[in-house]
Specification:
alpha/beta; Rossmann fold; 8-stranded mixed beta sheet; 4-stranded antiparallel beta sheet
Length: 259
């Protein structure tokens, strides 16, 4: 029995190239499933504020999620007054481990900055003085950076990253959209066979490999690595883009059959 939806936001729920950005059937499906007791978690690389801005101001979605997994790791629950509150102690534990990871990864991050000097148009990202990631000028440059990072990780396995096209964020290897979804499921007392997950890009792969959600899908605009992951997990590769593909998958699995 379906009890939890875990969906990426940009490229999965929202299509930035169409109007409306979210097909009406997606809104109807969310309303019907929520009325039936199914919870919805937006699982995104956005910050909490950026996600809220997208939901409320940028796209004005009439249905709001019960949970938010943001920056590929932190879990929040929406209170009755509409405010977001950390759910469990996951976020606090994440902060401690990320502080340790960044402290130990200092020499590696210096090598990353030196490596990136050979590329044009790189935007390095900092938060409170901490080097947290970057944006490259092309996917090819990001491919080369990821290969370099994979060689560095052999020296510090806890040092990892989450990629979305030309964006990358450094993180502790124990935290991803997948492990955060697993923790949310644990807190809710759900097995993986009660969870549906949908995503379109590299940072969605950890929640689409079948480990944390039995019912997995990706829209037609997904990158090839995501399509391979979903196919290998026995999931559904939709023909529709973004939210149209998510609706298609919900119908395919028999979770929503309204017309």
């Amino acid at each position: 029995m379906l009890q939890l939806l875990s969906t990426d936001f940009d490229g999965t729920i929202v299509n930035h190239d169409t109007k409306p950005a979210v097909v009406p059937e997606m809104i109807a499906a969310l309303r019907d499933l929520r009325a039936a007791g199914v919870k919805w978690a937006v699982n995104t690389g956005r910050t909490l504020g950026h996600m809220d801005d997208g939901l409320v101001r940028e796209f004005a979605l009439p249905v709001q999620p019960d949970f938010a997994i943001v920056e590929e790791r932190d879990i929040y629950h929406r209170e009755d007054d509409g405010r977001w509150k950390p759910f469990g102690d996951w976020n606090a534990r994440s902060a401690v481990l990320h502080d340790e990871m960044f402290r130990l990864a200092g020499p590696l991050l210096a090598e990353v900055l030196a490596f990136l000097e050979r590329f044009e148009g790189v935007q390095n990202l900092y938060d409170k003085g901490r080097y947290i990631g970057c944006i490259t000028a092309s996917n090819g440059d990001m491919d080369r950076l990821c290969h370099f990072l994979d060689t560095l990780r052999a020296r510090l396995p806890m040092f990892s990253y989450q990629r979305n096209t030309i964006y990358i964020r450094f993180c502790h290897e124990a935290y991803s959209k997948g492990t955060a979804l697993g923790e949310l499921a644990r807190l809710l007392g759900l097995g993986h066979d009660a969870i549906f997950a949908a995503g379109d890009h590299h940072n969605d792969i950890p929640m689409l490999d079948g480990s944390f959600a039995k019912w997995v899908t990706c829209p037609s605009n997904s990158c090839e690595e995501v399509k391979l992951t979903v196919r290998t997990a026995g999931g559904y590769l939709a023909k529709g883009a973004a939210s149209a593909g998510v609706v298609e998958a919900l119908r395919h699995f028999g979770f929503w059959n309204a017309t």
